[in-house]
Amino acid sequence: FPQVSSYGGYRAGGGAHGSGRAVDIMVSGSTGWEIANYVRANASQLGVTEVIYSQKIWTTQRAGEGWRSMSDRGSTTANHYDHVHVTTR
Predict the structure, then answer these.
(1) Residue 16 and residue 87: Cα distance in Å, rounded?
(2) Which residues are within 8 A (CB) of 86 and not within 5 positions of it... i.e. 6 or more apart?
(3) Mean pLDDT of all residues in 40-60
(4) What pLDDT, on a 0 to 100 scale, did the predictor assign at position 50?
């Protein structure tokens, strides 16, 4: 995905970002869905356990349920409309 030029990774604190197991791919719109669906389709090969985008979540633990809706976290960024969040093992 050469159109992606910005990523977020490690940040202080807990959670997957704090342990270095998560990355945010800074993109929106149809490109975001293209990336989110690619990562989901290749999760096993990539070691991915969770993908969040556009207030939807997919996890390996509940893969059979597909994309699930998430509650409103209050902002574009918190609701993952401006980036794809990927968590790995």
Answers:
(1) 7
(2) 22, 23, 24, 25, 39, 48, 50, 51
(3) 98
(4) 98
